[in-house]
Each structure stands twice: as C-alpha cells, then as structure tokens.
Request: fold
Amino acid sequence: MKTRRDFLKQSSMVMGGLALPIIPSCVAGSRIKAAGPMKTQHIQKPLVLWFSQTGYTKRNGMLLQKTFERLGLNATGADIRDFDRGGINKFDLIVLGSPVFYYDAPQYVKDWIQTLPDLRGVPVAAYVTFGGPEGNQHNAACSILEGLVEKQGVPIGIDTFMNMSSFPLAWSKDKVHEKTWMSRHLPNKDTYREVREFAGYLVDQVKKGQSSEFSKKITLRECSTWLAPVFWTKLFVKNHSIDKKSCIRCGTCVEKCPVDAIDLSGYKVNTDACVLCFGCINNCPAGAVHMEYDGEKVIGYHDFMKLKELKIIEPDEGLEKKK
Ligand SMILES: Cc1cc2nc3c(=O)[nH]c(=O)nc-3n(C[C@H](O)[C@H](O)[C@H](O)COP(=O)(O)O)c2cc1C
Reply:
C-alpha cells in the first residue's frame, strides 16, 4: 500500500523531472568568489556563529572556537540569536554554521545574514551539519557562504559534518528510516577530528591570504528546494498545539521557534506562520508539544533519543562544562 510519504516522494520526483531542464541555468549562476582582497592576514580574533535547534551545529561550533583558542587565538562563539551583530566588524574571521533543513540552509539563517553590516575584506567560511547522505549539504553550505560573500566577505572555506538526523518525521515509535538509524553513532571521534582540521585549515588560509571559489552542484535535491517542501510536508501535519495540562511554561518552544509562531499565554501555535523546523517538539522537556503526521503522533528528538537509549558522543574537550 502506498503511504503519503511515497506519494510525496513520487510527486517531488515527477515535478523534479519536469524542472530538470531549467536546473543547469539556475544553479550554474551561483559562483561564489571574492570581490576584493582580504583585509588582513594577521588573524587574532575569529568569530564562530551558529544556528542550532538540537545542538549538533552548536557542538561543532564550540569545538571550532575551542580549536581556534588552542591555536593561540582570541576566539568568540555564539548562537546567532544571542549575538549583537553591530560589533561584528571587530572580528578578523567569521565562520557561520547551520543545520540543513529541507535540502537548504534555513530561511531564518539566510534572512539573518541579510541583516549584517558590510563585511568588506573579512574572510568568511560556512559549515553545515546534516542528517545523512544526499542531504544537499554542499549546496546548503554554499547558500550560507553566498550570503556572507554578498556582504563583501572573502570566501575561504566550507565544510559539512554528518550526524544523526533530527528530523522527527524520519522516525515513529516502531519504525526509523534506515538512513537515520545508520547514522545514529554520529558524530564520532572522526567527525570531531574533521572539525578541528577545518579550524586549522581556515587559519592557514587567512595567514596565506588565500581566498577560494565555490559553486553549487546540480542535484535533484537542489531542484526539490524550489518545490516548497515545507508546504507539501505541512499538508500532512495536523493538530500542532501545546497541551496546557503538560506544559511547564519553561518557554523553550518560544525560544526555539524562529518565526514567533508560539503564543504560550494562550497555548496556541500559529500553524500558518510555522516553518516546520520542529524546534518546539524536538526540545520540549515536558512532551507538551503535540503534532500528528499522517495520523500518527510525532515524537520529538530528545524523547526519541531516550526511547532508543541513544547517547551523543561528546568531543574530548568537554565543551559544555566550559560555558
Ligand atoms: C526540519 C528539518 C529538516 C531537515 N532537513 C534535512 C535535509 O534536507 N537534509 C539533511 O541532510 N538533513 C536534514 N535534517 C537534519 C538536520 O540537518 C541535522 O539533524 C542537523 O544536524 C541538526 O542540527 P542542529 O542539531 O544544530 O539543529 C533536517 C532536520 C530538520 C529538523
């Protein structure tokens, strides 16, 4: 029997097929390169910023910061939601990290970049964390870098780090998508080694005054991003609400929601505004966020981790304790 997921997959493939002839011209246009020289090769104050809903991107961002510190630099790390962007020009390297959502960088991150002041000559880099092969991760990282370069930053690097997906529709109580289950051991020591190497690579690039060019790849996933995947997925999400009885009013869902769609005073979710990032249900410590997909109750990320007794491997640096 065909499920709605099969239907969605097939429709997007058909529509993707129809769109194929226009892909090359659209994607090939996005060549990301420096418009001018690097401001300085004397690096002292790198800045690592991240948008992170379930902690993977934050963990790697903190490790980048820590590695910069170990290299003798005065590094700063922050969530973009807590960062005062007015002071961004005092940094001499900016690295921005984000999860991949729906085969792209989240719109919230792209919009946030637009609000930055001019970054003329500042070396910039991007990284993404993502939930499995074929996640369009390279292009998502390029999307972020592209935004920073439009602000006149000088591109020096991108990287992509895989971990278990935090996309709750990839699991139900009894069934987990193979791709998600296969990557449940990630991140691991190799991931963290790659993160540290990325930090070292970026520092070397700045010292050499070396910018790089990047371009998006032509992929079917890239094409899917033009077909409004959130819109289609939302068609099957029902009863997204806050359960008044279970809610402990901690405000986590409100903090996590990038579009202010949750009004805790009335226990209401504005489902029209919701961008289906699952930040609310993935992080609610009381299981008070309710949502059904295809007739089944959605289980949030932390509840799923508990249910399956999964534990995150932390880097040796002990990042959280340092804070
Ligand atoms: C709404 C949503 C959409 C996602 N879409 C993708 C995707 O298109 N490709 C992919 O590889 N991973 C996808 N993922 C997985 C996340 O990119 C991955 O779990 C990421 O590391 C989460 O980062 P965070 O913990 O910092 O929020 C998605 C996760 C969510 C919650």
In short: The first helix runs from residue 4 to 19. Residues 52-58, 99-103, 129-132, 135, 137, 163, 165-167, 276-278 surround flavin mononucleotide (CB under 6 Å). Residues 18-224 form a domain with the Rossmann fold fold (CATH 3.40.50.360).
